[in-house]
UniProtKB/TrEMBL annotation:
One of its GO terms (molecular function) is ATP hydrolysis activity. SUPFAM superfamilies: P-loop containing nucleoside triphosphate hydrolases (SSF52540). Gene3D superfamilies: P-loop containing nucleotide triphosphate hydrolases. Residues 9-275 form the ATPase AAA-type core domain. It comes from the Bacteria. This is ATPase AAA-type core domain-containing protein. InterPro entries: ATPase_AAA_core, Bact_Antivir_Def_Nuclease, P-loop_NTPase. Pfam families: AAA_21.
Length: 388
């Protein structure tokens, strides 16, 4: 099943098992047939995206993927990482942190010779080649490393090469490339990164999972979005691991950063927070283009979908009811919604059957006995006793 009447940003909502992820995949497959560029981001380990045709980022990859994509940025001399860090309120700083194993004694040359010999004898995978080196060249390289690397702890060294600008940084970057290509994935060193935010430096491994996921997604999209083609972005459950503040900002930040490209977002979510700020912005709280994001909400049931027509109550409680059929405790929306129902009933905009069905749904959604009792009282006083 597929439709053409979609918007810039499209939300697919529904309970678990309703078919949101399958529908996302169907949308992607249909766009592949149209020769569009499809990018998929799965934030759950239960990845349901097709493995063919998509550029894909999966939560299964975790922080390993983020490390790899940062490394790729360095190897490809792509400075978009600095722009994204700055956009997400980090400082324009990232340094490589190299960790050697516990048998490192401070002598690079002897350490590398031991590790290379061990790798060549015992650790080399069947499909890989031996590490081949000339002793004189290795010694020269170690001398370069000694001048460049700065100690961080007993076994850790900082590899800092700035923003690709200047002759010195270019040389340092070339040394890092050689180091990585020679020794990566050979049990000779481990790699992490230092980031900086609010004047504090910290390891990437120490960043919150939500922040690291968002950073990974921004970097991934910056590398995969194409300039001269329609891009279809499929995102499954982006709220996972995100703080509520980040949930509210998520879509706005993605749209703000990539809005100049030809793209459409399709987002499967359980979180009203993902939608709420777009609704508020539609109320002209913002005068720039961010306030004009076109979006639609589709409710998914058993793999089928229907568009949700929103009312003017943009509270989180309203979203929970409209989209997920849930009432929250101490819900001020409930009283406003009941008044609106009664007004529409008195004006004969809805029938007796329709208002009875709506009150039935409300009572079934209540967790608090007090809410149920209030609804029953309203129903008896204003509906049952005044049946038309």
């Amino acid at each position: 099943m597929y439709w053409d009447n979609y918007s810039d940003v499209n939300f697919l909502v529904g309970v678990n098992g309703s078919g949101k992820s399958r529908l996302l995949n169907t949308i992607g497959q249909n766009h592949l047939k149209r020769n569009d560029h499809v990018i998929a981001i799965s934030n759950t380990v239960f990845d349901k995206f097709s493995t063919r045709g998509y550029e894909k980022l999966s939560a299964r990859d975790g922080k390993v993927f983020l490390k790899n994509i940062i490394i790729d940025s360095f190897l490809n001399e792509n400075d978009s990482i600095y722009n994204i860090l700055e956009y997400l309120k980090y400082e324009r700083f990232v340094a490589v942190l190299i960790s050697f194993y516990s048998d490192f004694d401070g002598d690079f040359l002897s350490y590398f010779i031991r590790k290379i010999d061990k790798y060549n004898k015992f650790d080399i995978p069947i499909d890989k080649d031996f590490i081949d080196y000339e002793l004189i060249e290795l010694e020269k390289f170690c001398n370069q490393l000694e001048k460049l690397l700065r100690p961080y702890s007993n076994y850790e060294y900082i590899f800092d090469f700035g923003y690709w600008m200047g002759k010195e940084n270019t040389v340092n970057l070339s040394i890092f490339k050689k180091f990585y290509e020679l020794f990566s994935n050979k049990r000779i060193f481990k790699i992490d990164f230092l980031l900086s935010k609010d004047g504090k430096r910290f390891k990437l491994d120490g960043a919150s999972s939500g922040e690291s996921h968002f950073l990974a997604q921004m970097l991934f999209l910056s590398e995969k979005i194409l300039k001269n083609k329609k891009n279809i972005i499929l995102i499954d459950e982006p709220e996972i691991s995100l703080h509520p503040k980040w949930q509210r900002e998520y879509v706005l930040k993605l749209y703000d950063y990539f809005y100049m490209y030809d793209l459409n977002f399709f987002i499967a979510t359980h979180s009203p927070l993902m939608i709420s700020k777009l609704q508020v912005n539609r109320k002209d709280f913002y005068s720039d283009y961010i306030g004009n994001i076109n979006y639609k909400i589709f409710k998914v049931i058993d793999g089928n979908f229907e568009r949700i027509q929103e009312d003017d109550d943009y509270s989180i409680e309203s979203l929970y009811w409209e989209i997920f059929g849930l009432l929250t405790p101490d819900n001020s929306f409930l009283s406003r919604y009941c008044v609106a129902l009664l007004d529409n009933y008195d004006l004969k905009k809805i029938s007796f059957y329709e208002i009875k069905e709506e009150f039935k749904k409300l009572k079934e959604a209540c967790d608090l006995d007090l809410q149920k009792q209030v609804l029953m009282d309203i129903e008896n006083r204003f509906i049952n006793n005044n049946e038309h």
